[in-house]
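Ligand: 4'-deoxy-4'-aminopyridoxal-5'-phosphate. Inputs:
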Amino acid sequence: MDRIYLDHGSATPVDPRVLAFAQRYLVEDVGNPSSLHSDGLGTKQAVEDARERLAALINADEKGKLIFTSGATEANNLAVRGTAIRNMGKGKAVVASAIEHISVLNPMKDLAKHGFELALAPVDGRGLIDLGALEGLLTDATVVTSVMYANNEIGTIEPIKEVSTIVHEKGRYLHVDATATAGRIPIDVQRDGIDLLTLSGNAMGGPPGAGALYVAPGVKLQTVLPGGGQEQGLRSGTENVFAIAGMGEAARLARDEMAKESNRLQGVRDALVKGILAIEDSHLTGHPERRLPHHASFRFGRIEGESILLSMDMYGIAMATGSACTSRTLEASHVLLAIGLKHEQAHGSMVLTLGRSNTMAQVPAVVDAARGTVERLRNLSPL
Ligand code: PMP
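Predicted complex:
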C-alpha cells in the first residue's frame, strides 16, 4: 500500500516546479551574492526577485524590509530578541499568547532570565486569544507582543487585526508567526497592522533552509547574527540562494494557486473530520470554523498520543501528535494544556496537515486506520 503523508506541518515536499526553477543555483549559477563579478550580481538578482515575490504574497509595505533567514526559528528569534534588545531603553517587557511555538516562547523565556518581564495571554477552549486579558497584560514597557496567525497544532486562526489594534494602543510592536499560515490563506500585513511577520520557505513548498522576517517601516531592531552584514545588516552569513530563490518561486505559485488548492484541501479535510468524529469519544481540537483549511486535529478519550502515531505509521500513515519540534519531550503539549485540556486528555492527540499529494480517495483508508488504532489502543489502555 502507498503511504499517505499527512504531516505537512512538520515537513513539506518541495514542489517539483520549485526544484526545477531553483536547482540552477546549486549547480550552475553559484556566485556569492556579495561578490562583484557577473556571477555574484546574477545570484544577488535572484535573491532580490525572491524578495519581491514574497512581498507580493503578504502585501508588504514598499518601505518595509524582508530579511531572509535560515528558517522560521531564526526569524522568530530575530523578531523577538532583535526588537527587545534594540528597544531596551524604552521598556523591558514582552508578551506572547500562551500557544506560541517554542521558537517564540523560548527566546522570550531567555529574555526573562536577563531582566525582562514575560507575560502570557490565555486562549479560550477553541484556541482564540482572550483579547481582554491581552489588553490587561500590555504596559508602556511592552516592546514586543507575539501572537501567531494560526496555530500549527490546533489550526485556530487568531483575530490578528483586533490584536494589532490593542497592541498599538498600549504596547509597541506586534510580531506574528505565519509559518503555518502563509501560502494557505491570504495574508495582508498592511491591512492587519503587522509590524513583524515570520515566514517559512518549506511550509510553502519551497526547499528547507530558508525563512524570512518582514519588518514594517519604522520598526527598530538589531541583528542577532552579526558578521558580514548581509541582509541589510540584520542577518549576516552568505545567502542560501537555492533555498531563497525556491522560496520566492513557492510564494509566486502560492499566490496564483492558493485559493483553488486550499478549497480542494478543505473538502478533503472536512471529509476526514466527519469520518474521524464518528469514532466514539473523539473530539476536534481547535476552532471548528476559524481554522486553517488543510488542518484537522483531534483528541481521543482514553488513549496515549505517541502510541496513536506509531499505530497509524504501521497503517502507512504519517501524522503528528503535536509540534515535531517538541516530539522528543514526553511532556503534554503546552497548546493543548492552554486550551484547557487535562494532562491525560492532552496526550491522546492526532494532528493531520494536508498537502498536494492528498486526495478524497485517501479518506476511507485514513478513517479506517484511525478507527482501528483507537479501538486497539483502548483495548490495551489502563485508562
Ligand atoms: N513556528 C511555527 C508555527 C511552526 O509550526 C514551526 C515548525 N513547524 C516553527 C515556527 C519553526 O520552524 P523551523 O523548525 O522550520 O525553524
